[in-house]
Amino acid sequence: MVKKKSHEESHNESVSGDNSAVNKTATEADATETNAATEEGSPAGENVQIDELKVKLTEMQDKYLRLSAEFDNYRKRTLREKIELTKAAGEGVLVTILPVIDDFDRAMNSLRDTENCTAVKEGLQLIYNKMGDFLRQNGVSQMDVLDTPFNADIHEAVTNIAVEDEAKKGKVIDVIVKGYMLNDKVIRFPKVVVGE
């Protein structure tokens, strides 16, 4: 005799079958996650990561060495260019001043041969003017400090002399050595006598 399953029994069997399918799927998912975690934490996975880090480290060290070498080359090149520029600038000044020296030579020769002092004075005045032009062309100007108030920042006092005129007290009354400026910078301070 075949017994018919009741509706309730067949429902229970289908529910238990569904539960076993769900349990089976969950177990497979857990196994997959466990395998993935095991592969990452495995020595083979760690070796791959270490090799990648070593490659990155080697690349960074190579970049650092190249950059360091480029900077060193740049520093040496700029230093060499500065030295060459300084030499060239000095050469230009010396070549420009040579004609003035030639004029001085001619003046010294004419001093021995002539008795006309007026001609020698005029020649020396021309040389002096030429030298002044040369200085102006190179940005050098003479400091005009006579009868100006004494300023310790731009004047060098040699001595103080008592003066009777109240207007000259604290002012430059004599210039012993002239001062010069290159553009806006003092390149030689004037040596002055100050009234007190």
Q: Helix amount, in percent? A: 55-70%
The ordered H/E elements are HHHEEEEEE
In whole angstroms, the N-to-C terminal distance is 147 Å
Shape: elongated
Level-2 CATH architecture of the largest domain:
Alpha-Beta Complex
Stated plainly, the CATH topology of the largest domain is called Hemagglutinin Ectodomain, Chain B
Give the percentage of residues in beta strands. Answer: 5-15%
At the fourth level of CATH, the homologous superfamily of the largest domain is GrpE nucleotide exchange factor, coiled-coil domain
Please give the count of helices: 3
Rg from alpha-carbon coordinates: 49 Å
| Largest sheet report | 3 strands, antiparallel
Please state how the strands of the largest beta sheet are arranged side by side. 1-4-5
User: On the 0-100 scale, what is the average pLDDT?
Assistant: 79
Name of the top-level CATH class of the largest domain = Alpha Beta
Count of individual beta strands: 6
* Unreliable segments of 5+ consecutive residues: 31-39
Secondary-structure content class? alpha+beta
In total, the number of domains comes to 2
Brief overview, please?
With about 200 residues, this protein is an alpha+beta fold. The chain is built from 3 helices and 6 strands.
